[in-house]
Design goal:
Its main location: membrane. This protein is mainly beta. It is built from three helices and 21 strands. A hairpin with a 6-residue loop joins strand 16 and strand 17.
Length: 293
């Protein structure tokens, strides 16, 4: 009598290879591939993890033995680990590979959303606009641009000061760019662009500065003549000033303002009114206290 036996031995995973190399290089916006091969019984499960400097825990980037990265950016640069596991009974058996490193080279890339899309500051305060740019090779030229102005990093212009690029401690080939604006006013509300160049190319991205009204005391003075002779955008700006006064200083001007704008003298008449002697009337220029409008 002949007996056939099949012995199924359960074993935890053992990683045979990971690569193709310990150090791989990819071009910016190109592709990168890694393979992980392991032996185990039962069949193991694979996972690729990226070690991100800003995060305490690794980031899961793939649930397969192969990792394929397309449209590579500098945010893909760093170390990757292959994790393999199976279950024997109810016990997980897991093993992790040594890290493999991806190096990204190419033109500059200003990271989108790195500091958000808008910076808000109160009138009279100092504001700082900042973006992160990565490049390998290092940037050879960087400037902030707004309107017709161009300010090189490391230079100043009046209330504006552009810092030199500062190397980030945790991210390789990445730099912080900052533009300082002292004592902002509403005319500074605009879009500011950071333009960066190296030997491989150029990139440009923006931040918007939004200046809100702020006043240092409880009284907001407007000349009656400035209000009465205002129209269109100028009139809207005067009303916005009053709104900001109530918002930031806690002064209730809304009801008084409602009564004030109902006055015929507030609306700009087509021709100026004349006195009995044929001379144009002059509106009083006494400063108005917003709390008494």
């Amino acid at each position: 009598m002949k007996y056939n036996f099949h012995l199924d031995v359960a074993v935890g995973p053992t990683i045979r290879s990971v690569g193709p190399d310990r150090l791989s290089t990819a071009n910016l916006y190109g592709e990168a591939k890694f393979d992980c091969e392991a032996e185990a019984n039962p069949t193991p499960t694979y996972q690729w993890l990226q070690q991100v400097p800003e995060l305490e825990l690794p980031l899961i980037v793939s649930n397969e033995a192969k990792l394929e990265l397309r449209n590579v950016s500098y945010q893909h640069q760093g170390d990757y680990i292959c994790r393999v596991w199976n279950y024997i009974g109810n016990t997980e058996r897991a093993v992790m590979s040594d890290p493999v490193t991806l190096q990204v080279v190419g033109g500059p890339q200003v990271l989108r959303g790195s500091w958000g899309g808008e910076v808000t500051a109160l009138r009279g305060e100092d504001a700082t606009l900042g973006l992160v740019v990565c490049a390998d090779p290092r940037p050879r030229h960087a400037s902030w641009e707004w309107g017709s102005l161009h300010l090189q990093v490391g230079q100043g212009l009046g209330r504006f000061q552009a810092e030199q690029l500062v190397q980030q401690e945790k991210r390789e080939d990445c730099y912080e760019a900052r533009l300082h604006v002292r004592q902002v006013d509403p005319t500074d509300s605009r879009t500011y662009f950071l333009k960066v160049e190296n030997d491989k190319g150029t990139d440009r991205h923006y931040l918007r500065l939004a200046v809100r009204g702020s006043y240092n005391n409880g009284k907001f003075q407007l000349h009656r003549s400035r209000i009465q002779h205002s129209s269109g955008p100028v009139l809207i700006e005067r009303l916005r000033d009053l709104h900001e006064l109530s918002r930031y200083q806690g002064i209730d001007v809304s009801c008084s303002l409602c009564e004030f704008i109902k006055r015929p003298s507030f609306l700009p008449p087509p021709p100026p009114p004349y006195s009995r002697h044929g001379q144009p009337k002059r509106f009083p220029s006494t400063p108005l206290d917003a709390t008494r409008l």
